[in-house]
Design a protein that fits this description.
single chain, 269 residues, mainly alpha, Cytochrome Bc1 Complex, Chain D, domain 2, 2 domains, 10 helices
């Protein structure tokens, strides 16, 4: 009787004991379930993103055909009145259209800055369309536009690479044949960065091999500092350097000396 009871207990324990591979099977089931759910959701999200992107590109293509194709061609291949846009990237479109330089009001030596003719979503759509034609510079990441870079390094880089056209204080300057380097006061950081990587009009291109993204951020920080802080020496005279200062001395300084001399002579007589 005791033997039978012992055998029964042994069988009960064996029946309640898990198989050695049960834990492995449970883990595999969990992994397969999780992976399947993730694949399903990620595939759906990717499909939705692709659909939105394609719709954006198509909207940009329609806007381009209606507003830009006259000069740049129906397929952005370029014409006698406008260059090809293959490879200019989204950054170039965002810079030119957001600053109102494009579409041009009239043909001239240089496209002037004016109020933008399109909204942000329309500009992004046209940028997406042009970017889909060929690889090119993308709109910069916000991390480089915060104005918290190295001011000293940014000032040095600006004086070396930019001051000969834009003036050491970013006040702008005249170039040849009716062209000019525009003043940088009030220019958005994103447009400064985009100008450096796309080289609009007369400006050279400063790619990441010439000036790294971090150094571009330093330049933006320097220009932001100049804009937010007044001239420590008093009235800046337009920040045009020794030309305006010398003119001020000749007109007002020497004028005051001449007037004082005339006053003394009149008093003596």
């Amino acid at each position: 009787m005791a033997k039978k009871t012992s055998t029964s207990v042994h069988r009960t324990k064996a029946a309640g004991r898990r198989h050695p591979l049960a834990s492995v099977a449970l883990i595999l089931v969990g992994l397969v379930t999780t992976g399947g759910a993730y694949a399903m959701f990620s595939t759906t999200a990717t499909a939705e993103t692709a659909a939105v992107t394609q719709a954006t590109v198509e909207e940009g293509q329609a806007l381009f055909a209606a507003n830009c194709a006259t000069c740049h061609g129906m397929n952005a291949e370029g014409t006698d009145d406008g260059p090809s846009l293959y490879g200019v990237g989204a950054a170039s479109v965002d810079f030119q259209v957001s600053t109102g330089r494009m579409p041009m009001a009239f043909q001239g030596p240089q496209a002037a800055k004016k109020p933008a003719q399109f909204g942000e979503e329309q500009i992004n759509a046209m940028a997406a369309y042009v970017a889909s034609l060929a690889p090119g510079p993308a709109i910069p990441d916000d991390v480089y536009l915060q104005g918290d870079g190295d001011l000293a390094a940014g000032g040095e880089l600006f004086r070396i690479n930019c001051a000969m056209c834009h003036n050491v204080a970013g006040a702008g300057g005249a170039l040849t044949e009716g062209k000019y380097a525009p003043p940088l006061d009030g220019v958005k950081p994103v447009h400064i960065y985009e100008a450096m990587i796309t080289g609009p009009q007369n400006m050279p291109v400063f790619n990441d091999m010439n000036i790294t993204p971090e150094e571009k951020a330093d330049i933006i920080s320097y220009l932001t500092y100049l804009e937010e802080n007044p001239s420590p020496g008093g009235f800046g005279l337009g920040n045009l350097g020794p030309v305006s200062e010398g003119l001020f001395i000749w007109i007002f300084g020497l004028g005051a000396v001449v007037a004082f001399t005339v006053w003394i002579a009149a008093r003596a007589n």
